[in-house]
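Recap from last week: sequence in, structure out.
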Amino acid sequence: MIKIESNVTPQKLLPKIERLFELSAGKIHAIAAAFENAKGSPVITVQGRYVGRDWTEWTEGFHYGSALLQFDATGDEWFLDWGRGKTVERMAEHVTHTGVHDHGFNNVSTYGNLLRLATEGKVDASEYERHFYALALKASGAVQAARWSHTSDGRGFIHSFNGTHSLFADTIRSLRSLAIAHRLGHSLRGENDRRISLLERLVQHAAVTADFTVYYGEGRDAFDVRGRVAHESIFNPADGAYRCPSTQQGYSPFTTWTRGLAWIMCGYAEQLEFLKTVADEELEPVGGRARLESMMRRAAQATCDYYLEQASADGIPYWDTGAPNLEKISDWRKKPGDPYNSHEPVDSSAAAIAAQGLWRFGNYLKRLPSETARGENYRQAALTIARTLFDSPYLSTDPTHQGLILHSIYHRPRGWDFTPPGRSVPCGESSMWGDYHARELALLIQRDATRTTCPAFFNV
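Predicted structure tokens:
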């Protein structure tokens, strides 16, 4: 259970954030100079060097997007030029990639950040350049929305790369691609030229995920614990009926893979921010503001509370709440996470994503008069996690190590993570998504500390 530190403030974290971005600059330069794209996108580090990993191409946007965040935080134009150039050179195939559910990761991190920076006035972009970014984001949102499976109750969801039967927790954060495309005035065209609302598909996916991926302690099954998350939900592709929970990267369908939990926390928090900017008349045909915000808030609050209960005292979770050897770590919820233990790995990437979810949801709640205290508690939890991540043993200070945040886990069941000689569990390595989200978290806190507008994906 997180021991929330009340004396941590955004201003007090500024020296750590400055140090993080100093180190981050060297990491980005090192990967840019050494990585060979012919081997696929950089995914995780092995002995301190980024390597690809055959599965799906879902991390390339984080690679170039990290440079854009570096520019945003520091103003160093080398990172803008490199990130912008690589986006133009490398990312077009991701815009039209029909085989993945990851458009919000790849394309919003690149084209989305570029258009946001232009809108904020931090990048001098011509009208033609802005239209180029907007076109890419419109197409990306429509392609993502076309990965549609119908449910037996008349709704539907964006299915994962695993097949039309598969709903992933991860995809809640890729709804940002649909949100941006809708904000830019786009829709999906189907058979017979039928216009399909991207906002409607966003709302339906969010609602189906809330109903079947998030648990609320209401006796749904024998393992129904409030805030627990199933990584994957399985539906009958013939008639759309729900069948069972499942997982690809967690320990079991009846435990909670903590990065999946973090995606849910962050995704719903961001969508609540987005809904605040959508007019009532747009929301009325797809359920109405009160109903939609209630659904998303319920899911966000349940999962945020569960994370606070399940993470270690310093805010870092182990990779799965039901990992089989956790019982061998005495009082693991009451102590700081131990990345060098001999039983189960922690996952710093889950912490970086979850902290952003707690921060955004806390900000959302603080605007509600009756929820100010709860919102502040979530914000302090996020700052507590950030203080842990932005320091030893998580912040990578070794200039020969290309990763920024250490002790990330990719796929524990498949054994894809490097275990150092003499140790029994993986540790000491980084992931492209963990590093990206740590930079994004640092940027959010930096802007809050300096009283500047916090970045939002939909400000395009």
